[in-house]
Amino acid sequence: MIGVLSYLVFFATMASILAIAVLGLNLQWGNTGLFNGGVAAFFGMGAYVTLILGGLPQPDRLGGFALPYLLALLGGGAGAGLLAWVVGRCTLHLRHDYLAIATFGIAITFENVARNASWLTGGAQGLRGFEKPLQDTFGAGLSYNAGFLAFVLCVLALVYLFLERLVASPFGRLLRGIREDETAARSLGKAPARIRLTAFVTGAVILGLSGGLFATFYGFVSPQDVLPILTFQIWAMLIVGGSGNNLGAIIGTVLVWAAWTLSGWALSRFAPLDMQLYTGSIQYILIGSVIVAMLFWRPQGLFPERLLISRPARSRGTTSGQTGSTDT
Amino acid sequence: MIQSLLDGILVGAIYSLGAIGLTMVMHMLRFANFSHAELLSVGAYCALVFDRLFEGLLPVIANNIGPLSLTWALLLAMLVSMGVTGLTAMAIDRLIFRRVRERGVPQSMVFASFGVALVIRNVIGLIFGLSPTFYSNDIAFAMILSQDPLILVKPDQVFVLIAALICMGILHLVLSRTTFGYALRAVAENPSLAQVNGIRLKAIIAAVWLIGGGLAAAAGVLYGLTNQITPLMGNDLLLPVFAATIAGGIGSVYGAVAGGFLVGIAANLAMLVVPSGYSPSFPFLIILVVLMVRPNGLLGEERT
Amino acid sequence: MTTTLKTFGAGLALGLSALASGAAAQSCEVKIGGIFPTSVDWGRPIAETAKFAVDQVNAGGGINGCTVDLLLRDSQSDPKVGVDAAKALVDLDGVKVLLGAVGSGVSMPILTTVAVPAGIPEFSCCSAATAFTALAEEGKSKGLWFRTYPTTDVQAAVTAKIVADQGLEKVAIFYKNDDWGQDYAKLLAGYLDQMGVTVTESVAANAAQPSYRAEVTTALATAPDGIVGLLYPTEASVLIREWISLGGSQKMVFSNSLRSDEFREAVGDKYLTQAVGMDNAAPRVASADAFVASYTENFGSGPNGPGLPNSYDAAMIAMLAMQAAGPDASGADIAAAVAKVTDPAGTPVTADADGFAKAAEVLSAGDTVMYQGATGNVVFDANGDVAAPAVMWKFTETGTEEVTYFTMEDVRSMLTGN
């Protein structure tokens, strides 16, 4: 039974790390309507910067500044935010399908740089030389993993509370206002470009934190961690959970990641060995079909966005419909 | 330098063919279709099947055409494949995209296309295996156009360029000279107004998929002829084809053609100065530069 | 939707408990875990070869009389997925040995996050990154890391020797832009420089690229006498075809990954008459032929493809070590027993079912064995790395044949500088 517990702790850690990333994307897409096709780039930026700042010095490579861990992690978030600021300045004025592809391209380029700039990123070999923090205190086994899970859960809770307050605040209403009708927002004297940039950067910082935690968990990051499939996974989690709903985003993450790993486990266990060699392709076909089926039957996700209406409106008895984005 | 320019034009022709279909679909249905490039794979494999079939039925047509590694059988298979792939694209729209569209959330189309791409790619992998194949295992040698500077061109690539130009030419005539072409443009401009005037929206959308799928199949076969056929080829061509579409401006067929050549040439020229490890980034950098100068692409029009 | 959640949770609990009770009820079955990218073109044959090794062991009586059950998991080349699969294999299925992964980007996090904390040895066929050696030198792999893929240093030294022996003075290098290729190309350039061979251009070939025309043109412009191709069959078949069709020199030297039927058929053997390559050698004993024969009988073609003999050896050594460690051995015991089955002074055993049966006999008497593997007499150093004898091979109409044999001593003498 200890094995099951150990695995569940492990699973929960990865799911929580991914949930943080999904929350970051939810701010960008669910609340602000910015199609970020380059999730992997911001996640990767957080991962790489965290390890470069917090790792030990390495020969033939810049970096390894051995900063205290929390500082390195925050640095990772800041790095992702900086990348988002630069990218946002260039691309946020574009139509949403242009933005999707421009950001998709950023992710490709980020992976490409990580693979080639070995003086900084370790190249295709990956970036190592990072000591998991507090390993002396907690040891290496289950106790360490449990401790790390607790830390990740704290970060997740903080991010969740921050975002919940943010979307309920006037700023959150502004974000949704811009998402629904930019012209109207501008007529009220708001500056949509600046506000969108703020949301984009904030979301990216959260993605970066998630990436930093991911790299900490493995003590290692390589270009294989930032392939486009990661972007797809994070998006799948948000779509299944329900974009615009933070709780839905977290539950969606757990469900999708469980389905992703359990399907592999089930295929390995119950498919005949000869068939097992084909399970990779079959698994992808299943995942693709589930996504499409989800969009047929419940395009707003399992937990649709709750439309927040200011109190006077509600007291007048105006009932809300579904999420704002569906009634187009 | 001249060689790189030439290489760029020859590779660019394939990107252009892929981008024409994509730009039409993106303009008409207003979503970034990430599964479009998979239609190139469908077309290439479909032609492979018919090529082998025709060769088996009529060994006479298995001979090469002139200096090309292309056979009559493959040429025929390519035409069949264009039809079949066009119909496949229509079927995918009927089965999936139309339903998602009718559910209302417009942006979930992008995501649906991601899922569709994943399914198509892996189904092809299951059926045909993951290893690369070729239409002809023979190697067609390049012709030396000039010794100093050394300029080489493969006959197949010249054929690819000519075939691509013919496809584009036919499409140009259809769009600019036929009632159907006007109807197509009318729907793209203003769907409701076009419907009021008796244009059947569904028929037009089906036609767009048919054309887009057909051209994608042609691009897939021509790519397979000069490179290789793998289940991942669509995925590999995704970014260049998108780059061509966006650089040209969404909705502009001529822009897509220009964008294809631009991406091909720029990527080849860039290799002269940048280490080749960075080559996957070039299409993206081209998108970025074009969008900075012209936010709607080279020939695109502003549309809200 | 809450119903969905509940059903899901119930299903999960049911699955886990079924698993726990199922594991206890089975009589005499030994599980080993394998993590391979089975959804990648060159990954699937590597997994098939590992499965073949398991079949051989079962034919030879199994480990300590128990049937070996290989639990294969697809890593999808995604580190997250691979690491999760490894953790599930160790925690839920209770495997004591992990085979894999292939890419270093997957093997490394498995090692640091799953294998080392749980004390489970990881036997990789194909992860080539030098980072593993560095990790072992820091004492962080705890002796649990083994790879049957010779270090890129060995490969580069032998390749350089072959290039010089072919009389090439100016070569261009094409390398796969991954951990293996980057490392290999860098080391090879160093060795070639020592031997006075000029490298005119070192061109990275990215996987999944629509066209390699620009890469080929770049190298062609430097007019080399010949080329060195450190590539995998998928991109090499396009790149080398392009190179030949543009009139590039057909004097080519290849890495062992191109000793592949797929590549030979794609390019055509008439263009490969002047091509040679390096590979790790099988020992000059009959057992190596026996391995090739049994493999060919099983798969219909020889073990020609990247990582196949390595995958076979990794699986075999892992199972021999399990046999040597005895039933109920811990992961650390198994790791320690590797030395008993790769002992140069031990009784030689062949790489097939009979060999395994013989090894079991010798080991039960308390003696050690020397496993004569598909990649040679595998001996791991303290870092879990192998250095193996090498060969120069060339293509024939039906496959490849070995031309020159470099003994272990030859290979060591080539490793001049690092």
Report what the structure shows.
The complex is a heterotrimer of chains A (328), B (304) and C (418). Helix content of chain A is 72%, strand content 0%. With 328 residues, chain A is mainly α. Chain A has a domain at 2-225. The relative contact order of chain A is 0.16. Mean pLDDT of chain A is 86; it is low at 310-328. Chain B has one domain. Chain B is globular and about 60 Å long. The model of chain B has no long low-confidence stretch (mean pLDDT 87). By secondary structure, chain C is an alpha/beta fold. In chain C, helix 2 (43-59) packs across helix 14 (353-364) and helix 12 crosses helix 13 (331-341). Chain C has 2 domains: 28-149 and 307-377, Rossmann fold (3-Layer(aba) Sandwich), CATH 3.40.50; 152-282 and 390-414, Response regulator (Rossmann fold). Chain C has 15 helices and 15 strands.
Which percent range fits the helix content of chain A? over 70%
Quaternary: heterotrimer
Model regions low in confidence, pLDDT < 50 over at least 5 residues of chain A: 310-328
Question: Given the C-alpha coordinates, what overall shape of chain B results?
Answer: globular
Number of helices of chain A: 15
Radius of gyration of chain A: 21 Å
Secondary structure category of chain A: mainly alpha
What is the ordering of alpha helices and beta strands of chain B? HHHHEEHHHHHHH
Label the structural class of chain B: mainly alpha
Shape descriptor of chain A reads: globular
Helix content of chain B: over 70%
